[in-house]
Amino acid sequence: MPGKWHSLRRLATDGAIHRAVGKVSSMVQVRANQPINTDGSINLDAWLDHIVSVDLVLDREVMKQACEFARQAEQNDKAHKNHWAEGTSSFQTGLEIAEILADLKLDQDSLVAAVIYRGVREGVIPLPEVEQRFGATVAKLIDGVLRMAAISASLSPRQSLVLGSQAQVENLRKMLVA
């Protein structure tokens, strides 16, 4: 883990974050839509086929469990009318994040965390349940992203300008909290 943090610090200090944000932004803009069933729901099998084809090391069954867990949490949330944002889907957002991370060749735990993150952030999925079902590594990844989001939200505009222009800061914030 220290190696990952060292790399992140190095990225932050040499200006590579701006370049990474630009690359991720362009990837998001050209990404194909999720495969959709005739009833309008996401075709999870087709999505899983695609994700596994991007990285052959991924365990399809583990990814499917994470997806079904996140989808069920969203359905339960909708049943209680606790939508996190009108017209959006925390489940679909998780799939989109996981797809970006798969293209970047991140590991299975990172992809599982990406699929589940939005549900945890919105209070629909308890972090201890994530740890119980998917392990401590996935739970720690989600907790780390939650902490980064909290730090990002607490920065004053003056502190944010250390990273560059306000537009760059906003793009970075969106990437970290997405």
Strand content: under 5%
CATH architecture: Orthogonal Bundle
Distance between the termini: 22 Å
Q: Kindly state the mean pLDDT as a whole number?
A: 77
* Domain module tally: 1
Low-confidence stretches: 4-18, 25-30
* Structural class label: mainly alpha
CATH-defined topology: Hypothetical protein af1432
The main β sheet shows up as: none
Sketch the topology as an H/E string, one letter per element: HHHHHHHHHH
Q: What is the radius of gyration computed over CA atoms, rounded to a whole number of angstroms? A: 17 Å
Number of strands: 0
Helix content: over 70%
**Can you identify the CATH class?**
Mainly Alpha
Coarse shape? globular
Count every helix, treating DSSP H or I runs of 4 or more residues as helices: 10
Key phrases:
globular; Hypothetical protein af1432; mainly alpha; single chain; 72% helix; guanosine-3',5'-bis(diphosphate) 3'-diphosphatase activity; 10 helices; GTP diphosphokinase activity; 178 residues; 0% strand; kinase activity; kinase
Q: Which helices and strands, and how do they pair?
A:
Layout: H1 2-13, H2 16-30, H3 44-54, H4 60-79, H5 90-103, H6 108-121, H7 127-134, H8 136-154, H9 157-160, H10 166-177
Helix pairs in contact: 2-10, 3-4, 4-5, 4-6, 5-6, 6-8, 7-8
In a nutshell, what does this entry contain?
The chain has 178 residues and is mainly α. The protein has ten helices and no strands. The chain starts with a helix and ends with a helix.
